[in-house]
Design brief:
Blueprint: H1 2-16, H2 49-61, H3 65-81, H4 85-98, H5 124-137
């Protein structure tokens, strides 16, 4: 029994660390825009849509907790820059609460990878997958 529990705990901790026990094949990039949030105002219906797509690119690839915080702050700044600072604060609160890697949603942090990935730096092989897919889509993160 002790052996079974030990093996189970090792597997569980490996999954929580985002280890290679989880398949590391990146799904094709997809974006739902602002994930059930309006994409703009009544007058300008897609005013901050591009901000959300850029945010989705970062969420799709995932990474560390610090990278997620930076992605969320970038979203806030982008929406504020188009003239909607109050909406930007509201969106920041929403993504901070609902965007973690633990939610079984299509817009969670690291949604391009199989669920349950967790936070963590991408390996060199994973970074290559991201870059290859972004090149196919002609998207440059720099």
């Amino acid at each position: 029994m002790f052996r079974f529990v030990s093996i189970f705990l090792i597997c569980l901790s490996s999954l929580a660390m985002g280890s290679e026990l989880v398949s590391s094949t990146l799904k094709s990039f997809s974006s739902d825009g602002c994930s059930s949030f309006p994409e703009g105002t009544f007058e300008q219906r897609t005013l901050w849509h591009n901000c959300c797509v850029q945010h989705d690119i970062k969420y799709w690839q995932g990474g560390t907790h610090e990278q997620r915080l930076a992605a969320d702050k970038d979203l806030e700044q982008c929406v504020a820059k188009v003239g909607e600072p109050k909406i930007a604060k509201l969106m920041l609160a929403g993504v901070r609460v609902g965007g973690g890697p633990y939610w079984p949603t299509s817009y969670r942090w690291g949604y391009g990878w199989p669920y349950f990935r967790n936070y963590g730096p991408l390996s060199e092989a994973e970074k290559l997958q991201v870059q290859t897919q972004l090149k196919k889509l002609k998207i440059n993160l720099e």
